[in-house]
Amino acid sequence: MTHPEPVVHNPGKTLGIVGLVLSIPLSLVGLVLGIVGLVKSRRARLNNWWAVAAIVVSFLVIVAIVIWAATLVWLMGECAELGPGIHDVNGRPIECVAGS
Questions:
Q1: What is the distance between the alpha carbons of residues 90 and 82, in angstroms, rounded to a whole number?
Q2: Any alpha helices (H) in the chain, and if so which ranges?
Q3: Residue of 7, 26, 38, 83 with fewest CB within 10 Å of its CB?
Q4: Nearest-CA neighbor of 51 among 90, 86, 11, 91?
């Protein structure tokens, strides 16, 4: 008769799953939960792919937000110099609207 394998509880798995779910709408929270989940799993000497995925997705979302914000700031600076209207900057049209 064979004995069933003992069930191993991964202490960081739930945090990794929640971090992955929150990694897009609340990327900073997802990043923190993913890191905490990964640390808890590593202390138990277990793998936690959910936490790794949460960290990666959160990091990519944060990078995308930073690039978007930098582009927006650059466009606002260009429009502040050029004024309202459609302008050609480096071969690309930029439409600047008058602020209210």
A1: 13
A2: 13-22, 27-43, 49-82
A3: 7
A4: 11
pLDDT of residue 51: 97
Q: Within 13 A of 3's CA, how many CA atoms are on the CB side?
A: 3
* Residue 1's pLDDT band (cuts 50, 70, 90): low
Rounded Cα gap, residues 29 and 35, in angstroms: 10
pTM: 0.79
DSSP strand pairing (92-96 vs 85-89): antiparallel
User: What's the Cα-to-Cα distance from 25 to each of 13, 20, 22, 59, rounded to whole Å?
Assistant: 20, 10, 6, 12
Helix 13-22 × helix 27-43 angle, to 10°: 160
